[in-house]
Design brief:
two-stranded antiparallel sheet, mainly alpha, 4 strands, 159 residues
């Protein structure tokens, strides 16, 4: 018998009912939101974040344009969020790789970023190729591919 044949989900506890773990939308007409389906055990094992009364992070599923909200920092990282209000969250994430702050991530920027993490030379070269090869074309300002596989931060939303 193969290994995947022996794996099974944990049994569904008897105390669960379809009404348990439902939410009421705060500004709606009292329509509950189900957070799991009994017939799909994985939805019970992986329950979504449900804000409790008093939690600072509300509407966790709502995308924020300029902050990466979390339960620990519902208004983004203090200081960092204010400094980068003119950048999207994905641009803020990619700024780490732009060492010369010119808005372009060159392959050597990716390589040196991986080396700063302590990764080996072969692994850093592989990651550099994978990242820049796959993210360069969607971010180029025109139709022609960039021969240097540069990633342009101002078009990062396309990647």
């Amino acid at each position: 018998m193969a290994e995947h044949d022996t794996l099974r989900y944990d049994p569904i506890p008897n105390f669960l009912s379809s009404d348990l773990f439902t939410l009421k939308q705060p500004q709606s007409n009292e329509t509950p939101i189900k957070t799991f389906i009994i017939e799909q055990p994985v939805t019970i094992q992986r329950l979504p974040y449900v804000p409790k009364d008093g939690d600072l992070l509300v509407d966790a599923g709502t995308a924020r344009a300029t902050i990466a909200a979390s339960k620990e920092s519902p208004n983004g990282t203090p200081g960092y969020a204010e400094k980068h209000q003119n950048k999207t969250v994905v641009q803020q994430h990619a700024i780490y790789w732009d060492f010369d702050h010119d808005g372009i991530i060159w392959p050597q920027d990716t390589y040196f970023g991986c080396r700063k993490w302590g990764w080996s030379i072969p692994l850093s070269l592989l990651v550099m190729f994978i990242i820049n090869f796959n993210l360069s074309y969607p971010t180029v300002p025109g139709w022609l591919p960039d021969p240097f596989f540069r990633i342009y931060l101002d078009k990062m939303y396309k990647a």
